[in-house]
Design goal:
Shape: globular
Radius of gyration: 20 Å
Strand order of the largest sheet: 2-1-5-6
Structural class: alpha+beta
Order of helices and strands: EHEEHHEHHHHHEEHEE
Helix content: 40-55%
Number of strands: 8
Length: 233
Amino acid sequence: MNSNTKTLVVDIWSDFVCPWCWIAKRRFDRALAAFEHKDAVQVNLRAYRLAPNYKAEPIKTALLKKFRDPLAAEGMMYSVQSHGAAEGLAYHFDTMLFGDTMDAHMLVKAAGDAASQQRLAEVLYEQSISHGKSLFDRDSLALLAAQAGVPAEVVQRAWSTPQLRQQVQDDEYQASHIASGVPLFVFGNGAHISGAQPPEVFRQALENLHAQSRQELAASAGEVCGLDGCILP
Protein backbone atom coordinates (compact mmCIF):
# COMPACT_ATOMS: atom_id res chain seq x y z
CA MET A 1 0.00 0.00 0.00
CA ASN A 2 1.46 3.38 -0.98
CA SER A 3 1.33 6.62 1.01
CA ASN A 4 -1.41 7.95 -1.26
CA THR A 5 -3.87 5.31 -0.11
CA LYS A 6 -5.46 5.09 3.32
CA THR A 7 -6.35 1.81 4.95
CA LEU A 8 -9.87 0.90 3.87
CA VAL A 9 -11.66 -0.83 6.74
CA VAL A 10 -14.56 -3.26 6.32
CA ASP A 11 -16.20 -4.84 9.38
CA ILE A 12 -18.20 -8.02 8.77
CA TRP A 13 -20.72 -9.34 11.29
CA SER A 14 -21.88 -12.91 10.76
CA ASP A 15 -22.80 -16.14 12.49
CA PHE A 16 -21.69 -19.62 11.47
CA VAL A 17 -25.26 -20.97 11.78
CA CYS A 18 -26.69 -18.19 9.61
CA PRO A 19 -27.57 -19.92 6.31
CA TRP A 20 -26.93 -16.81 4.22
CA CYS A 21 -23.69 -15.70 5.88
CA TRP A 22 -21.35 -18.11 4.07
CA ILE A 23 -22.84 -17.10 0.73
CA ALA A 24 -22.43 -13.42 1.59
CA LYS A 25 -18.83 -14.01 2.64
CA ARG A 26 -18.03 -15.79 -0.62
CA ARG A 27 -19.61 -12.99 -2.69
CA PHE A 28 -17.72 -10.32 -0.77
CA ASP A 29 -14.47 -12.27 -1.16
CA ARG A 30 -15.02 -12.36 -4.92
CA ALA A 31 -15.66 -8.62 -5.04
CA LEU A 32 -12.57 -7.95 -2.93
CA ALA A 33 -10.36 -10.18 -5.08
CA ALA A 34 -11.33 -8.14 -8.16
CA PHE A 35 -10.94 -4.79 -6.39
CA GLU A 36 -8.00 -2.77 -7.75
CA HIS A 37 -7.01 -1.53 -4.28
CA LYS A 38 -7.56 -4.78 -2.38
CA ASP A 39 -4.14 -4.53 -0.74
CA ALA A 40 -5.35 -1.44 1.10
CA VAL A 41 -8.41 -3.20 2.55
CA GLN A 42 -8.46 -4.37 6.15
CA VAL A 43 -11.27 -6.84 6.88
CA ASN A 44 -12.33 -7.28 10.50
CA LEU A 45 -14.46 -10.32 11.37
CA ARG A 46 -17.07 -9.43 13.99
CA ALA A 47 -19.14 -11.84 16.06
CA TYR A 48 -22.89 -12.18 16.15
CA ARG A 49 -25.05 -14.96 17.59
CA LEU A 50 -28.45 -15.64 16.12
CA ALA A 51 -29.35 -17.89 19.03
CA PRO A 52 -27.85 -16.86 22.39
CA ASN A 53 -28.44 -19.46 25.11
CA TYR A 54 -30.12 -21.77 22.56
CA LYS A 55 -29.44 -25.47 23.03
CA ALA A 56 -28.04 -27.03 19.87
CA GLU A 57 -30.49 -28.92 17.68
CA PRO A 58 -30.87 -29.85 13.98
CA ILE A 59 -31.29 -26.72 11.89
CA LYS A 60 -34.35 -28.19 10.19
CA THR A 61 -36.05 -28.37 13.58
CA ALA A 62 -35.10 -24.77 14.32
CA LEU A 63 -36.39 -23.57 10.94
CA LEU A 64 -39.72 -25.34 11.42
CA LYS A 65 -40.09 -23.60 14.77
CA LYS A 66 -39.31 -20.26 13.15
CA PHE A 67 -41.53 -20.52 10.07
CA ARG A 68 -44.28 -22.73 11.58
CA ASP A 69 -44.90 -23.93 8.04
CA PRO A 70 -43.01 -26.86 6.51
CA LEU A 71 -43.44 -25.48 2.99
CA ALA A 72 -41.98 -22.09 3.99
CA ALA A 73 -39.03 -23.79 5.70
CA GLU A 74 -38.41 -26.01 2.68
CA GLY A 75 -38.63 -23.01 0.36
CA MET A 76 -36.05 -21.13 2.39
CA MET A 77 -33.66 -24.09 2.40
CA TYR A 78 -34.10 -24.61 -1.34
CA SER A 79 -33.31 -20.94 -2.00
CA VAL A 80 -30.16 -21.08 0.15
CA GLN A 81 -28.99 -24.31 -1.49
CA SER A 82 -29.52 -22.86 -4.97
CA HIS A 83 -27.67 -19.63 -4.26
CA GLY A 84 -24.96 -21.56 -2.44
CA ALA A 85 -24.46 -23.94 -5.36
CA ALA A 86 -23.99 -20.94 -7.66
CA GLU A 87 -21.07 -19.92 -5.43
CA GLY A 88 -19.64 -23.44 -5.29
CA LEU A 89 -20.89 -24.04 -1.74
CA ALA A 90 -22.60 -27.28 -0.64
CA TYR A 91 -25.43 -26.89 1.88
CA HIS A 92 -26.53 -30.12 3.58
CA PHE A 93 -29.43 -29.13 5.80
CA ASP A 94 -30.02 -32.74 6.85
CA THR A 95 -26.85 -32.69 8.97
CA MET A 96 -26.51 -29.01 9.90
CA LEU A 97 -26.97 -27.95 13.52
CA PHE A 98 -28.24 -24.69 15.01
CA GLY A 99 -27.55 -23.10 18.40
CA ASP A 100 -25.47 -20.69 20.48
CA THR A 101 -22.09 -20.22 18.75
CA MET A 102 -20.28 -18.39 21.58
CA ASP A 103 -17.47 -20.97 21.76
CA ALA A 104 -16.87 -20.79 17.99
CA HIS A 105 -16.73 -16.99 18.02
CA MET A 106 -14.37 -16.94 21.00
CA LEU A 107 -12.15 -19.36 19.13
CA VAL A 108 -12.00 -17.07 16.09
CA LYS A 109 -11.19 -14.11 18.36
CA ALA A 110 -8.31 -16.09 19.86
CA ALA A 111 -6.93 -17.22 16.49
CA GLY A 112 -4.76 -14.12 16.22
CA ASP A 113 -4.06 -12.26 13.00
CA ALA A 114 -6.67 -11.56 10.34
CA ALA A 115 -5.40 -14.27 7.98
CA SER A 116 -5.65 -16.94 10.69
CA GLN A 117 -9.13 -15.79 11.61
CA GLN A 118 -10.22 -15.94 7.97
CA ARG A 119 -8.84 -19.48 7.55
CA LEU A 120 -10.58 -20.68 10.69
CA ALA A 121 -13.88 -19.01 9.78
CA GLU A 122 -13.86 -20.72 6.38
CA VAL A 123 -13.21 -24.11 7.98
CA LEU A 124 -16.03 -23.58 10.50
CA TYR A 125 -18.47 -22.69 7.73
CA GLU A 126 -17.52 -25.54 5.43
CA GLN A 127 -17.27 -28.27 8.03
CA SER A 128 -20.52 -27.39 9.79
CA ILE A 129 -22.58 -26.63 6.67
CA SER A 130 -21.23 -29.15 4.18
CA HIS A 131 -20.11 -31.95 6.51
CA GLY A 132 -22.34 -31.69 9.58
CA LYS A 133 -19.53 -31.09 12.09
CA SER A 134 -20.62 -29.69 15.44
CA LEU A 135 -19.75 -26.15 16.49
CA PHE A 136 -21.26 -26.83 19.92
CA ASP A 137 -18.82 -29.43 21.22
CA ARG A 138 -15.37 -28.19 22.23
CA ASP A 139 -13.63 -31.38 21.17
CA SER A 140 -15.14 -30.98 17.71
CA LEU A 141 -14.16 -27.32 17.59
CA ALA A 142 -10.60 -28.16 18.64
CA LEU A 143 -10.29 -30.59 15.74
CA LEU A 144 -11.61 -27.99 13.31
CA ALA A 145 -9.19 -25.40 14.70
CA ALA A 146 -6.29 -27.81 14.20
CA GLN A 147 -7.44 -28.31 10.62
CA ALA A 148 -7.18 -24.53 10.16
CA GLY A 149 -3.68 -24.49 11.66
CA VAL A 150 -4.60 -22.97 15.02
CA PRO A 151 -2.18 -24.18 17.77
CA ALA A 152 -3.67 -26.31 20.56
CA GLU A 153 -2.58 -23.85 23.25
CA VAL A 154 -4.49 -21.08 21.50
CA VAL A 155 -7.60 -23.26 21.44
CA GLN A 156 -7.44 -23.92 25.16
CA ARG A 157 -6.81 -20.26 25.92
CA ALA A 158 -9.84 -19.25 23.86
CA TRP A 159 -12.34 -20.69 26.30
CA SER A 160 -10.59 -19.60 29.48
CA THR A 161 -10.22 -15.92 28.57
CA PRO A 162 -13.14 -13.77 29.79
CA GLN A 163 -12.01 -10.87 27.61
CA LEU A 164 -12.79 -12.87 24.48
CA ARG A 165 -16.35 -13.51 25.64
CA GLN A 166 -16.68 -9.80 26.31
CA GLN A 167 -15.38 -9.01 22.81
CA VAL A 168 -18.11 -11.18 21.31
CA GLN A 169 -20.75 -9.40 23.38
CA ASP A 170 -19.29 -6.00 22.45
CA ASP A 171 -19.50 -6.91 18.77
CA GLU A 172 -23.14 -7.90 19.18
CA TYR A 173 -23.96 -4.69 21.01
CA GLN A 174 -22.36 -2.62 18.25
CA ALA A 175 -24.21 -4.51 15.52
CA SER A 176 -27.55 -4.00 17.28
CA HIS A 177 -27.15 -0.25 16.77
CA ILE A 178 -26.65 -0.65 13.02
CA ALA A 179 -29.01 -3.37 11.77
CA SER A 180 -31.31 -6.12 13.01
CA GLY A 181 -29.44 -9.19 11.77
CA VAL A 182 -26.61 -10.70 9.77
CA PRO A 183 -24.81 -10.86 7.43
CA LEU A 184 -23.85 -7.24 7.96
CA PHE A 185 -21.03 -5.38 6.19
CA VAL A 186 -19.98 -1.97 7.49
CA PHE A 187 -17.57 0.10 5.43
CA GLY A 188 -15.20 2.65 6.91
CA ASN A 189 -17.17 5.55 5.45
CA GLY A 190 -20.21 4.55 7.52
CA ALA A 191 -22.13 2.83 4.73
CA HIS A 192 -23.51 -0.61 5.52
CA ILE A 193 -24.91 -3.50 3.51
CA SER A 194 -27.22 -6.15 4.93
CA GLY A 195 -27.78 -9.55 3.42
CA ALA A 196 -26.11 -11.74 0.82
CA GLN A 197 -25.97 -9.08 -1.87
CA PRO A 198 -24.49 -9.69 -5.35
CA PRO A 199 -20.72 -9.16 -5.72
CA GLU A 200 -21.37 -5.99 -7.77
CA VAL A 201 -22.99 -4.35 -4.74
CA PHE A 202 -19.94 -5.09 -2.59
CA ARG A 203 -17.62 -3.92 -5.36
CA GLN A 204 -19.43 -0.60 -5.63
CA ALA A 205 -19.25 -0.12 -1.86
CA LEU A 206 -15.49 -0.72 -2.00
CA GLU A 207 -15.14 1.76 -4.86
CA ASN A 208 -17.13 4.36 -2.91
CA LEU A 209 -15.00 3.80 0.16
CA HIS A 210 -11.82 4.25 -1.85
CA ALA A 211 -13.14 7.40 -3.54
CA GLN A 212 -13.99 8.95 -0.20
CA SER A 213 -10.57 8.10 1.20
CA ARG A 214 -8.97 9.85 -1.77
CA GLN A 215 -11.06 12.94 -1.13
CA GLU A 216 -10.05 12.93 2.53
CA LEU A 217 -6.37 12.62 1.60
CA ALA A 218 -6.67 15.51 -0.85
CA ALA A 219 -8.40 17.67 1.74
CA SER A 220 -5.65 17.01 4.28
CA ALA A 221 -2.85 17.80 1.80
CA GLY A 222 -3.51 21.52 1.38
CA GLU A 223 -1.01 24.35 1.34
CA VAL A 224 1.19 24.58 4.45
CA CYS A 225 3.23 27.56 5.59
CA GLY A 226 6.05 27.48 8.10
CA LEU A 227 9.09 29.49 9.15
CA ASP A 228 10.88 28.53 5.93
CA GLY A 229 8.05 29.54 3.65
CA CYS A 230 5.05 27.81 2.08
CA ILE A 231 4.72 24.33 0.61
CA LEU A 232 2.22 23.56 -2.10
CA PRO A 233 0.82 20.01 -2.49
